[in-house]
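W.,

You were right to be curious about this one. When I first looked at the sequence I had no strong expectations either way, so I just let the prediction run and decided to look at it fresh. Below is the sequence, 159 residues in total, followed by the output.
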Amino acid sequence: MAEVQETGGNRSRKKNLDLNLVPFIDLMSVLITFLLITAVWTQVSMIQIGTSIYGKRQENQEKPEPPKKVDVPLKLEIRSTGYLLTVATQKFNFPLINNEYDDQGLMQQLAQVKQQYEEKTDGAIAMQDDLPYERLIRGMDDMLKTGFVQLAVLTGGPP
């Protein structure tokens, strides 16, 4: 503890005041630790970004490989208005037909996608929260039947 003694003026009495420095030392130790940790990550990210952006291209340098066809995102959105299938940047809309979902059209399009991207086995499914759970199961079945066996269910539903 720190102590402050004060003698002043005409009065001869002393004032003792104890300062509690423990909370201040705790605060400083946390701040220093936080700054040290963030400084390291900032430096690492600066190195990675700097070499990729500002590096000069040499003539004998290899061209970067385009992403494999397996890395193309595949997402099925189940909405109250029908299906929306997203493959890379292409979007395929399957509206309701006579108040029924177009499972046949979806499976035909998924089969075409599978022919184009034979090695792709993964996909993601998003569904609006107000739809019945059976609709999600049917969408999953359609994807499984066409060869997309690694499925991820996205939370929050489509926008």
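Here's what jumped out at me. Residues 2-54 form one domain. And, maybe more interesting for your project: The chain has three helices and seven strands.

Coffee later to discuss?

I.
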